[in-house]
Fold this protein.
Amino acid sequence: MGVETKPTEYYLADILDRLYQNQLALDTAVMELTLRAERQGATETGDNVRSALQTIGENAGHIKQGLAKLKVQGPHKSSCLRRPPCDSLF
């Protein structure tokens, strides 16, 4: 087994893809909590959350399309973020 090295550059498309994946995971988790709240009688809360999740779902389609276009374009220097040295984090 080789030693895994961390990348020194992060490309915008990769970062946005991770944010998109996080959004989907949070959507799923919030929906699970919503279902639990509704089973306990909080139907108004459930309706409010479902409305917000609908907006997230609508935006997810646009985000996914934008990511696909970025990935087709490939990495460019303008869309590359260099990882800062560890000592600059603190």
About this structure: Residues 9-89 form one domain.
